[in-house]
Amino acid sequence: MNLAVILNRHALYRPNHLAVIYGEQRFTYAEFNRRVNRLAHGLLRAGIAKGDKVATILPNTLELLEVYWAAAKIGVVVVPLSNLLRGQGLARLLNDADTALVVTERAFVEHLDPLRGDLPQIQPDRYFLIDAEDVPGYSPYRALVTDVPDTNPTGIEIHPDDPYNIIYSSGTTGLPKGIVLTHRIRVLYGLVFGAAYRIAPESVVL
Questions:
Q1: Is residue 172's pLDDT more than 80?
Q2: What CA–CA distance (Å, rounded) separates 103 from 138?
Q3: Phi (first) and psi of residue 117, to 5 degrees
Q4: In the beta sheet, which residues pair with residue 128?
């Protein structure tokens, strides 16, 4: 019971069925699976391994969705952070999660740059931007998905109780706390959500 199996099976048994609509872009399960696979291989090439934490500081984008699914395939733990975070509040969460790589956008560089000296666990070449290629100190997201295989990653054993993501609480009664959710929990969330809202194979979810 791990999340990656869901996408892999859809890509195998329903390859031409529409999977994702993002703006004017449309991807079938086969197409989206190949995109996710490229990112998964790109993260592995960047030195990211099972159990490492990848933080996203993004609005709702196609790349955010790809990170979620790529992480599931290679056992990486996703740490989604709000793009409203600033200063030491942001630095604390990145350090608390033991973040190894960050994916963000150009508009957030001005907020992240002053903190990089306080984030010693993130190597300088592990900051990626989804929408720019010419910002000093940052690599383009495109570099992660270029010249890598688009096949399913192999050789990584993922167990139901392996962590999948860390969600931070709002911190209304103190400092935000990291809530670790496993593959099992996320799969069960999906099953309960689907049953409660009667989601069928042809349903479209916003």
A1: no
A2: 10
A3: -70, -20
A4: 103, 139
Q: What distances in angstroms separate CA 1 from CA 71, 136, 168, one per listed residue?
A: 15, 41, 24
pLDDT in tens, 107-162: 999 999 999 999 999 999 999 999 999 999 999 999 999 999 999 999 999 999 99
Tokens of 2: 């791990």
Q: Which helix (H) or strand (E) holds 88?
A: helix 87-96
Amino acid at 177: K
Residue 31: helix, strand or coil by DSSP? helix
Q: How far apart are CA 84 and CA 59, in angstroms?
A: 10
Q: Which residue, chain included where needed, has tokens 């291989």?
A: 41
Give CA–CA dist 78/53, Å, rounded. 6
* Tokens at 87, concatenated: 């200063």
Q: How far apart are CA 16 and CA 144, in angstroms?
A: 25
Rounded Cα distance, 11 and 165, in Å:
23
**CA distances from residue 158 to 41, 86, 102, 139, 189 in whole angstroms, order as listed:** 16, 34, 22, 29, 18
Q: How far apart are CA 47 and CA 49, in angstroms?
A: 6
Name the burial class of residue 36, with classes exposed (0-12), middle (13-18) and buried (19+) by CB atoms within 10 angstroms of its CB.
buried
Distances (CA, A) of 115 to 57, 110, 128, 192, 193: 14, 10, 15, 39, 38
pLDDT tens digits, one per residue of 23-67: 999 999 999 999 999 999 999 999 999 999 999 999 999 999 999
Which contiguous run of DSSP H or E holds residue 163? strand 163-168
